[in-house]
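Q: Sequence in, structure out?
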Amino acid sequence: MASTATLETALDYQFQDPSLLEQALTHRSHGARHNERLEFLGDSVLNFVIAAMLYKRFSKVDEGDLSRLRANLVKQSSLAEIAQKLSLSQYLRLGEGELKSGGFRRPSILADTLEAVFGAIFLDAGFEAAQRTIVKLYTPIIQGVDPKTLGKDPKTLLQELLQGRKLDLPTYTVIATHGAAHNQMFDVECSIPALDIKVTAAGSSRRAAEQLAATQAITAVQALGLGKAAGKSRARKSAQLSLPVAVTQENK
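A: Exactly. Output:
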């Protein structure tokens, strides 16, 4: 395991009680003094700090959208991405089984450990210290957030895009299925007749294929260069598109 001094430098925080950081980095597979209680604490601190950051930055965004933004900023994949930037996997204390199975790469373990680190800082020096660390890590992320789109799935974004141009909603049609019942692939077509757009995508479930088709349809709509006025003849002249995309698992 790498020296935690490097991690403290990356966090811009030096622990007064190094044993707290050690515990935060310890998975339950390693020993009895693990990080799950610290994770619980850190999760609460993180949610509060992110809520405050969003409240201050987006003064005109309502409660529902603020909740959506926060949920996406503190979800497992977002935390794991930050953990990777901190090279947190180098400092994990894992049991032999987790080491052999590649636990140091597992997003759930990385995300939980990062929350535990926040909890450890809170216990070591109080809320303001934990807040400073979280703000430092999240400020660049929040500065790049688009509150209108973050956390919305492609089907929702496409629906809003078309409604904003007063166009009919797209239709999704399963045009083929492949493979055995336990391992099927679905081909789905997304059609927007008003714009002469048809795109196809393949996924391991109907929902996954629809989401991918919606992503391709958004790209197709944007490629038309439509302004606020909808349904102009220039847009209707576009050729039909068929953009097959395959995925192996459904996005969560």
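Residues 201 and 212 are 6 Å apart (CA to CA).
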